[in-house]
Amino acid sequence: MGQNEQCQPCSKGTFREGLMSVCQRCQIGFTTKKEGSLNSKECNQINCPPGYFTNNKLINEEINLNFEFLQICLPCPIGYYENEYGSNKCKKCPEGYITKQLGAKNIFECDQVWDGSCKPDQPEPCPNGSECIQIRGEIFECRKIIVEFLNNEQNIREQRIKRFWFPLILGIICVIIIGILFLFFILNRKKCLLFFHQYFSCCGKITLDNLNNNNFTRNDLPIFTTPQPLQNIINQVFLL
Predict the structure, then answer these.
(1) Mean pLDDT of 205-217
(2) Which pLDDT belongs to residue 53?
(3) Cβ(190)–Cβ(212) under 8 Å?
(4) Shortest CA distance to 194 belongs to which of 211, 208, 214?
(5) Distance between CA 93 and CA 107 in Å, rounded?
(6) Are 46 and 30 in contact (CB under 8 A)?
(7) Are 79 and 127 a contacting pair, CB within 8 Å?
(8) Average pLDDT, the chain
(9) Which residues are 37's β-sheet partners?
(10) Measured between alpha carbons, how far is 111 from 75 in angstroms, rounded to an integer?
(11) Under a CB-based contact definition with an 8 Å cutoff, are residues 143 and 130 in contact?
(12) What sections of the sequence does the record tag as coiled-coil (predicted)?
């Protein structure tokens, strides 16, 4: 160390143990909690590099240096990337694009136009949690089986309602309405005939069989209940 040089603590993610001349970096996937670490045991914080994310199954377990890197850090699946350290999940590629392989480190690796095809021999062949399904021969596609099944069931159910139940229910309602109107007409026949004759003269004429009152319009011919002389009848007709 020169005369004007000063000691600086090891930066976070490094340590200096014993007579080491320089700070040593923690093994990949780990970092220190703070600066100035004195030995490798202080490298006990998970810090997955870009392209990987933390295995959430190990969050509540005691971490030690005996863990393999791929036990604590998992590569981003196809269709995802991660450009930062210590991430718990990877970022999704833009819609319609996927990565060529696992462990993408930035968005520029999302350069593959996704046509829905997949390779079943890859660890994570499909994005978004879908499954690689054999369509025919050597052709495989990523499909969300459960979601598609539920959507198909819902579409079939809606079509059944539109084609069968809706017309049936509408027909039953119409029959009930017609029945109520018919029953009302039967129970109030005289009032209905009077109403139609009063406002719709074309519907028919009132007779003594369906009217029991003395209310007549000016256009009605007089109704005689007792015999009268012919001259009186003629006079009454011309006086109207």
Answers:
(1) 52
(2) 92
(3) yes
(4) 211
(5) 7
(6) yes
(7) yes
(8) 75
(9) 15
(10) 18
(11) yes
(12) none
- 154 versus 105: the higher-pLDDT residue is 105
State the CB neighbour count (10 A cutoff) for residue 81.
Answer: 21
| β strands within 18-169, DSSP E | 24-25, 29-31, 45-47, 52-54, 73-75, 80-81, 91-92, 97-98, 112-113, 131-136, 139-143
Q: How many residues are there in the chain?
A: 240
Cα angle value 111/47/53 (rounded, 5°): 40
133-181 tens-digit pLDDT? 888 888 888 877 654 545 556 666 677 667 777 788 888 999 999 988 8
Cα separation of 147 and 153, whole Å?
10
Alpha carbon distance 198, 213 (integer Å): 14
Phi, psi at residue 38, to the nearest 5°? -100, -15
Please say if the pLDDT value at position 93 is more than 80. Answer: yes
Q: Is it the case that residue 210 has pLDDT exceeding 60?
A: no
Q: Would you put residue 124 in left (φ > 0), alpha (ψ -120 to 50) or beta?
A: beta
Cβ 110 vs Cβ 81: under 8 Å = yes
| Cβ–Cβ under 8 Å, residues 86 and 46 | yes
DSSP letters, 158-215, are HHHIIIIIHHHHHHHHHHHHHHHHHHHHHHTHHHHHHHHHHH-GGG----TTS--S--
Question: In the block, which residue shows the tokens 């393999």?
Answer: 68
Contact 31, 44 (CB under 8 A): no
Distance of CA 54 to the CA centre of its chain: 30
The domain 48-114 having CATH identifier 3.30.420: the answer here is: no
